[in-house]
Structures are given as structure tokens and as C-alpha cells.
Design goal:
By secondary structure, this protein is an alpha/beta fold. It has a single domain, classed as 3-Layer(aba) Sandwich (Rossmann fold), CATH 3.40.50.1110. The strands form two sheets. Strands 1, 2, 5, 6, 7 and 8 form a six-stranded parallel sheet that branches. A two-stranded antiparallel sheet has the order 3-4. α2 crosses α9 and α6 runs parallel beside α8.
Length: 224
């Protein structure tokens, strides 16, 4: 049984009524992966904006393994200290990680965020020495489109992230850097300039699916 753990911020946990990219990827792998697999993690809820808390189970499609390690407003800074225990408890084989926007927006600069990436990888490997990871760079968002300084920080972090993945990749615990979703459009792929709508969910799922297929021959090219 291949055990995949989605790790992320608000774009990964989703909010009440969303399908989430987690669901889109699950559906794709159900059709293309030749063996048993599931999604794992210590959490399973969506974020409820009315309650301002991750307490919703109102998935647009609830019939899938909803486990994850994602949180609204959480980043590499928050996940690095907890990933080891979470990966061990879930017996995760592969982490699917989409983080960084929150860090750069509220907590740390590009260099500090990259240091937390390295701490995250070390924490995961401490409890799961053979774990694999697929990491998505920070994708287009409305703040980067409107704020030149923030856009510069995002670009700098994505370069440091690529370097960290290259430096830390090893045969026993491989790391893959997913390519950003091509033609990701803030107007047509998000509902507020940051959070994905159904089209955006498909594009994020495709980024992970293509990395899994191209890097490890797992699954197949993504078809929505």
C-alpha cells in the first residue's frame, strides 16, 4: 500500500464546499496507478470560514481518503517541527508538499524559509528514513502580482527551493521538484487570486501527478 501525505497551507486544506486538489489527484491515481494506495495524515477537515477554524467536513466530494497535514495560514515554519511525528504515525511513504506562500507573506524571508525547508526534510527523514517527497514551488498569486518586493522574494525562494531539493536528494530518500502548473491564471484558476477554484485544483493536481509520473513512473500523465 503506497501511502501519500498531502502537506500544505490553505490551498491544500481547502475550505467548505471545495473538492480540493487532493481529491483531483486521488481520482487521477485511482485510474492510473497500478497498485493499492491511499492518502494519509493526522487531519481530515476543511477550513470553515464562518467559524474561522478547520472544522468542516463539507467536501464537494466526500467519498475519498481525506487525510492530510495541511492548515489554513500554516507554512514551512509550522510544518517543520511536526512533520516527523506525523510521517511516523501515518507511515507515510511520499509527502506531497505545497508550502511557502504563507511563510513569505507573514513570517520569514526567502533565506529563512529555505532553511525551514531543510529542517522539514531532516525532520521527515529522522522518523521515516526512506521517505520520498514531491515539492511544489510557490505558484502565482495575487500578492506577487501586485507587490514587486513580494514577487522578488517568491522568485528568490523558488530558486533556493530548487537548490535545496537538488542538494538533499538521495537514492534512499528521493526528492522531486514539481514544475509549476503551466498557464496558471489568477482570473480563471482561482476564486480570489490565491485559492484554487476547480480549474486551479486540476492544475495543482496535475503538477504533482506529472512529477510522480516523470520522476518515478508512478501513474500516468494527468487527464482532468
Amino acid at each position: 500500500m503506497l501511502r501519500l501525505m498531502p502537506v500544505g497551507d490553505s490551498m491544500t486544506i481547502g475550505s467548505a464546499g471545495d473538492h480540493t486538489w487532493r481529491y483531483r489527484l486521488w481520482r487521477h491515481l485511482c485510474a492510473t496507478y497500478g497498485g493499492p494506495f491511499t492518502l494519509v495524515g493526522p487531519r481530515e477537515t476543511l477550513y470553515d470560514k464562518t467559524a474561522d477554524a478547520p472544522v468542516s467536513y463539507a467536501y464537494a466530494e466526500p467519498d475519498f481518503p481525506r487525510r492530510h497535514l495541511a492548515g489554513w495560514g500554516e507554512g514551512w515554519l509550522h510544518m517543520a517541527p511536526v512533520i516527523g511525528a506525523a510521517a511516523r504515525a501515518a507511515k507515510a511513504d511520499v509527502l506531497l508538499v505545497s508550502l511557502g506562500l504563507i511563510d513569505l507573506g507573514f513570517y520569514t524571508d526567502a533565506g529563512q524559509t529555505a532553511a525551514n525547508v531543510r529542517a522539514f526534510v531532516a525532520g521527515a527523514r529522522e522518523t521515516r528514513p526512506g521517505i520520498g517527497m514531491v515539492v511544489l514551488p510557490v505558484i502565482p498569486n495575487i500578492r506577487a502580482a501586485a507587490d514587486d518586493h513580494f514577487a522578488t522574494e517568491v522568485a528568490a525562494f523558488n530558486e533556493l527551493l530548487a537548490k535545496a531539493v537538488a542538494d538533499l536528494d538521495e537514492p534512499r530518500s528521493p526528492l522531486l521538484l514539481a514544475a509549476p502548473p503551466p498557464a496558471y491564471d489568477l482570473h480563471t484558476d482561482t476564486y480570489d487570486g490565491t485559492h484554487p477554484n476547480p480549474e486551479g485544483e486540476h492544475k495543482i493536481a496535475a503538477a504533482f501527478a506529472e512529477a510522480l509520473y516523470q520522476g518515478w513512473d508512478l501513474g500516468a500523465p494527468y487527464t482532468p
